Amino acid sequence: METFGDDVHAQHRILRLDPPRADVHYVSAGDDTAPAVLMLHGFPDNHATWRGQIPALVRAGFRVIAPDLRGYGRSGKPAGVDAYGPAPVTDDLAALLDHERVDSARAVVGHDWGAAVAYAFAARHPTKLQKLSILNGVHPAVFLDFVLSNPTQFLKSYYIGFFQLPALPEFVLSLADFAMLRLVFAIDPAKPLARSDVDTLVEACSTPGAMHAALNYYRAAGPAHSLWSDVGKCPVPVQVQWGARDRYLEEKIAIPPADVAPLAKKSVVSHPDATHWVQWDEPDAVSDALIEFLNEK
């Protein structure tokens, strides 16, 4: 059991799946009969990234299902780069919703890499969700073209090239008790993440195989594999929330083009003082905008 806020309790569960699918560790909060919201974290995060949103959503009458994506936390960590393409990653999540008897989630919410997974989930399993909410993330099929055509984004994405290398990124990131990740969490958000939260994140990243698996998402998207280049069309309404002080992504790429997300809203819910970690920086504002979107007919 994990408590979010003062009064919302979430159950930790593990769904055991046969290969090539991977076991899914997740938390479930709220009434099992309430409309479900599937919430997907990014790199190098886990289900707890939604600690600011879970209580608000549950109080608003929704059920939250927040997994650790494959490779993260206590979820399975299959070997090989191909295991981190859109098909295996999203098929885990479809199995999770089936297991939880959710025919169609009210929405899938994704941040960072979770946004890419959310877009892929909508394309591959369109009947299993009604809406999509994206927080500082992009549709993977258009990201590469944007990087190559936008010098500012190219410079911001320097680390992606480094992550393509074998072994060295894992070594560098894990040095001195993951000092680099600790620094990121100290200086990236608008306010430094609490030490206890950083310790929890680092502990999850230090699980054997976790950092290698997390980096394999980047390798799966890289030029040697290009597994994320053909993510299909998103057929459901899309809301985009954006922390304007994102140092990794240009806001110009926030709204996906009509050929990949024809029902995307044409305006961004902007959070001017928030960074890439918008759900940490502005938890109440993000929750309020998300709940309004979920309740729209």
UniProtKB/TrEMBL annotation:
Keywords recorded for this protein, A-Z: Hydrolase
Gene3D superfamilies, alphabetized: alpha/beta hydrolase
This protein's name: AB hydrolase-1 domain-containing protein
Residue ranges of every copy of the AB hydrolase-1 domain listed in the record: 35-283
Family: Belongs to the AB hydrolase superfamily. Epoxide hydrolase family.
Transmembrane parts of this sequence: none
SUPFAM superfamilies: alpha/beta-Hydrolases
Statement: the UniProt record of this protein carries the keyword Hydrolase: yes
Keyword Hydrolase: yes
GO molecular function, one term: hydrolase activity
InterPro entries assigned to the protein according to its UniProt record, in alphabetical order: AB_hydrolase_1 (IPR000073), AB_hydrolase_fold (IPR029058), Epox_hydrolase-like (IPR000639)
